[in-house]
Hints:
By secondary structure, the protein is of the alpha/beta class. The protein has a single domain (about 1-145), classed as 3-Layer(aba) Sandwich (Rossmann fold), CATH 3.40.50. Helices cover about 35% and strands about 20% of the residues. The protein contains five helices and five strands. The protein has a five-stranded parallel β-sheet, with helices on both faces. Helix 2 (about 30-40) runs parallel beside helix 5 and helix 3 packs parallel to helix 4.
Amino acid sequence: MSKILILHGPNLNLLGLREPEVYGVLTLDDINARLTALGAELQVEVRAFQSNGEGALIDALHEARTWASGVVFNPGAYTHTSVALRDAIAAIEIPVVEVHLSNVYAREAFRHQSLLAPVCLGKISGFGWESYALGLRALVSQFKR
């Protein structure tokens, strides 16, 4: 059975409280539960991790290369600032799908640029929690090719 890391970046621990008009009303636990159920349906094991710290996210990516078949990653604001996360994604040599709850292209101009997308398998944004589900489905479909 394939194993997938669902990696959540900074401030996502505040989902359900933080700007619900932008990020929705589901909590991080709600999203993780839905992704675990979807993983079972897709016959993959889902493990979730969240950190507000860039270093912890890098460590999670490094560790994932030893056990995961791929990563669904919402890097939050680090999307636009972190060369270190970009380099970690490139280094682990497993597929990563970048996801965002909001449509980053309908927001502030600084959110339009992703430093991570060029080293990711793909990017999905704007579908709320379902961005994660779409990312998980897309990642799993790559294993069946």
